[in-house]
Amino acid sequence: MTRITQDMETAVVLKALREADGYYITNTARDMSQSDYKNRILLHTDLMAAKAREAAGYFSLEITGGASVHVDILRKQVDPFLKLELLREAMPNTMFQTLCRGVNLFGYRPYPQNVIRFTVREFAKYVDVWRTFDFMNHIPNMQAVFEEVAKAGKINEPCICFSTGPEHTNEYYVNKVQDILDVTGEDITLCIKNHGGLGTPRRIGELVDAIKQAYPDIIIHYHGHNTDGNDVGRIVEAVMNGAKIVDASDHAFTGFYGPPPILTVIQTLKDLGKTAVGIDEEAVIASSDIIKDERQHYAQFESQIKGFQPTVQIHKLPGGAMGSSLEQAVKGGFLDKMPDILHKELPKVQKELGNYWSVTPGSQILWTTAVSNVLDGRYEAPSGDLKNLLLGKYGPFPFYQPDEWIFEKVFGPDWKTILEEEGGIDDIEDMDIEQERETLTERLGCEPTEQQLVTYLQHPNDAVNFFKFEEKFGKSYVLPPSIFLRQGGFDLGESITFKDHSGKEHMLEVGPVQKNDDGETNVYLNVDHHERVYVFEPEAVAGTQVVATLSKEEIVELASVGDIRAPFAGNVSGINVKEGQEITKGEQVMVLEAMKMQTPVVSEVAGTVKTISVKVGDASRSVISS
Amino acid sequence: MKTKILVANRGEIAIRIIRAIQELNYEAVAIYETPDKDSKHIRIADEAIWLGDGPRCDYLNIDKVINATIKSGAVAIHPGYGFLAENADFARACEDAGIIFIGPSSDAIDKLGNKVMARTIMAEAGIPMVPGTQNLKAGEEGLEEAREFGRKYGYPIMLKATSGGGGRGIRRVETEKELGEQYEIARAESQAAFNDDSVYLEKVVVNPKHIEVQIIADSTGHTVHLGTRDCSIQRRNQKLVEIAPAFQLTPEQQEDISQTAVQAAKAANYFNAGTVEFLFDSDGSYYFMEINTRIQVEHTVSEMITGIDIVRTQIKLALGKELLFGQDEVQLRGHAVELRINAEDPKNNFMPEGGKTVRVYRSPGGYGVRLDGFCYQGYTIPQVYDSLLVKLTVFGWSWHETVDRLRRCLNNFVISGPKTTIPFFLNLLDEPDFQAGNFDTSFLDTHDNLLNYEEDASEVNKLARLIAEIHQKGENTYAA
Question: Which among B460, B472, B474 is the nearest to A487, CB-wise?
Fold first, then answer.
């Protein structure tokens, strides 16, 4: 019974897995954070649990990747590399695992090949197991990642994304596995990625068995979600049929959409004669005991609707998308339409769009299309990403093409020509990384590190904002969620203690808040027994939202002279024109982004751009005059 | 009824004088302009008289100040430094109005305020002056005269047009060869510019130390000195750090320069407290610069090493008392340093931070620490006056003890609101050349690393700022 440790060679690890009498466990802490807490579990909490998780003896800790790299810099204000470095210090023996979206890396859109390779190289210094998937199961989209992971001597874990329906047969998946093996060779672990938690235990058992029959030596890592409350059942069937690694997480934080509790998996399988290899049950329990009190501070990020969702078998939205879609429904004021969207429109759209796998970014396309179909009329307001999907930019449809009427609705009567001229996967040109380095140097005012550059290449604006945040506020990962995520301010006299990045202990005491006549607010804090005051200028306009208040008449008038109106409230993710520029009808002027989906805004008239009142990153509902 | 004395000044020096007046059991009358209506000197004084809306013009208005003095019934005026302190007309107006001016006579202020006259008096008394020549002869004869001067005093030297002035008609000459090349050109140029081709020479003192001597004289001509001060660390002729004694000079040099200062004061028939300033060359020679006929900002360091209250002495002398101590009773002990904590941003070219409000003011204390300030929590610094907030003067037995104490005091200071010179001084204290006592007037130019500090750069302060923001906004908008 061997525990697998980080210092082992890949070959040794794979041998241990093949010969294991029993199964190994991956603690998918990242997936739990992403699915049940909108990715907000802080490094502080992970560091608290680190020692116990290290002692627990997992095959791996899935702690980065997916959307977490973006959320790290955007909402958690932590350097995704520093996070791995600190966790590695705290847990030297446990392998770290990531979830990589192939050509989309940790983002939502394809990156150039050289950026993919550069990114993988830098992250591979910390990440031992690379779970890579493509939402179309299109293997060429994962090729570059496979190659770089192999070069770095790390473990490749290609995925077959799993779903249900008449097309999703064992035969199809077994062939898919062959396609993967043709590219990667046999030194891999294969993941069955059941991100929706779809299918019955029996269905999963059959699939595992079918793959094992075809490739007896293959190591299967089953990944599922507990959305319907039945993932333990699927895990049991997977292990009984020969899966060697399964995913679960700490019970202190398990919720509805993410992984099931590790301890339940262990107890259930023990009774069936299957042992969790290398696992120290006491340490599994201890991990949860240590962090259980932290959970209350993350309650604000839990889904609006509590409880299991067995209806996932109908709508197939994966774990992470469930919470954010509900949030969007609340914000957009269409919560009452959710049953229609989830149970009627979404299954219909899925079928119409080829019954592919509902996982990032494909799940967002399905969701946005279903919402838009219900709110605006069927395929009346197609998103840019839906167009890209139909044009085959993400890869070929796996089973069948959508019906022609959909193409016609989305692209108009000339759809065939458009498809012919623009269809197929784009060749994305390599990026001039040195040029990007220069740009970043300019924006930072100093030479960036390689890691900073990689972070920047993922999400340029958000990365720069994060670097500036860190410069101004220091390394804030040291703050517990009770401080970092505090709602409603602190109590007068409340004392706050923490250790800073260098390990120095500090004590703050909250003093009074005073508003001056000039609108300035002074916050008094006792910092290590020194009274300090922090001055805040009066807030000019709340937030950065640029909202032009117009009467209905004015809007109609503007529309008649040819204004281009933002079709929805979103963030400006790109501006394609300059002030003074002549534009023609149909020319793209800007790109708006909402729910990770980008939509180009095109001009319906020809004219000259007079002013640009927004910048990239602004939330906008403004009007661009032409 | 108590004797009343009017303090014709503002800020920290007004408070310093008010304290001395009150310690003599007299009453202190303050004056103020409107922008100073919240100034602490008004609160400490026994009464205060508003002069006008200012700014600055009312403090400088002789009639208004004299009228205020008469109205208040004060018998004397202490002018402090700046404003009317070295204005002979003001001293004369006091004399005319029968008010005691606490300082030298108007005649002395007049003479010593005039550079040419001051130089003449000092030269006659044999006080060392920067070596120079009379007008040089024309042609080869004059050039040979110049070469001889160069050989005697060394280069560089200044070739100056006699009729020039205000920085015009001056050439710096580095070598004898250069002198030969420049001599006739200078004459020709001088002729063209000032219609007078006469030129003369003066030695250039390269990177001298600024050494000054505190002197006190009573009306009988009894004159003593209170030792030396080194004020070499300056920024554009503005003193930043003042040290007593000038410990880099040998005891013999200190004694010698102090005696010279006494001689200079006597030559000018000087009365009351004053300061004789010298340039001190690296070869040990020193030259008279000027006499300041007033109390100086940095008088505190001399008080610390002698134990003599200079302002109290000033008042007593002016009111007709004789000096109570002789030179042999003046003992110099230990070291004292004054740092001017100004509301300025050193990084932004020491730009004043006027207009800002002092949100938190916590000052240090303890052994050997003296504070002369007028700042308090909630005080808004007027934009129309100087930026001095508080003078930190520290006494220590040894130089190193003094530096250690200064560092401790600066670290104990909490001033929030305006930026201050504190982080700059903290950097200075850790500068090895400063610690070793190696500094002259070029110090700041040769140590530009002193400006390399980060305001509030500590990690805890950055995080505290974030916590303050989470508190103020009711949520962490960076995590929303």
Answer: B474
- Helix/strand/coil for A270: helix
* Count of A-B CB contacts under 8 Å: 104
Instruction: For chain A, give the mean pLDDT.
Output: 89
Q: CATH homologous superfamily for B209-451?
A: ATP-grasp fold, B domain (3.30.470.20)
Provide the 10 A C-beta neighbour count for residue A26: 28
Q: Is B471 on the interface with A (CB under 8 A)?
A: yes
Burial of residue B139 (number of CB atoms within 10 Å: 0-12, 13-18, 19+): exposed
A371's tokens:
């919402």
Q: At what angle do helices B422-429 and B399-412 cross, to 10 degrees?
A: 150
Query: What is the mean pLDDT of the segment spanning A147-170?
Result: 97
Do A513 and B471 count as a contact with CB atoms less than 8 A apart?
yes
Of A380, A399, A422, the one marking the end of a domain is: A422
B412 touches chain A (CB under 8 A): no
Quote the number of domains for chain A: 4
For B244-267, the DSSP string reads ES-TTS-HHHHHHHHHHHHHHHHH
Q: Does B457 touch chain A (CB under 8 A)?
A: no
Residues A524 and A563 in one domain: no
Q: How far is A301 from chain B (nearest CA, A)?
A: 10
Q: Looking at residue A598, what is its pLDDT?
A: 63
- State how far the alpha carbon of B165 is from the alpha carbons of A236, B161, B182, B247, B290, in Å: 100, 8, 19, 36, 18
Residue among B360, B460, B466 minimizing CB distance to A528:
B460
CATH of the domain at A418: 1.10.472.90
CATH class of B139-203: alpha beta
Give me the amino acid identity at B472: Q
Q: Which residue from A minimizes the CA distance to B462? A: A473
Domain identity same for A505 and A560: no
Q: Would you say the pTM of this structure is higher than 0.90?
A: no
pLDDT at A609 over 80: no
Please list the active-site residues of B: 294
CB A509 within 8 Å of CB A525: yes
- Residue B448, Cβ density class (10 Å: 0-12 exposed, 13-18 middle, ≥19 buried): exposed
In tens digits, chain B (480 residues) has pLDDT values of 899 999 999 999 999 999 999 999 999 999 999 999 999 999 999 999 999 998 999 999 999 999 999 999 999 999 999 999 999 999 999 999 999 999 999 999 999 988 778 888 999 999 999 888 888 888 888 888 889 988 988 889 988 887 776 667 788 899 988 888 888 888 888 888 888 888 888 888 989 999 999 999 999 999 999 999 999 999 877 899 999 999 999 999 999 999 999 999 999 999 999 999 999 999 999 999 999 999 999 999 999 999 999 999 999 999 999 888 999 999 999 999 999 999 999 988 899 998 888 988 989 999 999 999 999 988 999 999 999 999 999 999 999 999 999 999 999 998 988 999 999 999 999 999 999 999 999 999 999 888 888 766 789 999 999 999 999 999 999 998
Q: Which of B417, B464, B470 shows the shortest C-beta gap to A486?
A: B470
Query: Cα–Cα distance between B458 and B462 in angstroms, integer?
Result: 6
A182 in the same domain as A329: no
Q: Do A483 and B470 touch (CB under 8 A)?
A: yes
The burial of A66, by beta-carbon neighbours within 10 Å (0-12 exposed, 13-18 middle, 19 or more buried), is given as: buried
Tokens 């403004």 belong to residue: A622
CA distance A463 to A570: 20
| Paired tokens of B150 | 């160069």
Report whether pLDDT(A589) > 60.
Answer: yes
Chosen for mutation from A33, A43, A298, A476 (greatest number of chain B CBs closer than 10 Å) is: A476
Class of B4-102 per CATH? alpha beta
Nearest to A469 by CA among A444, A440, A497, A504: A444
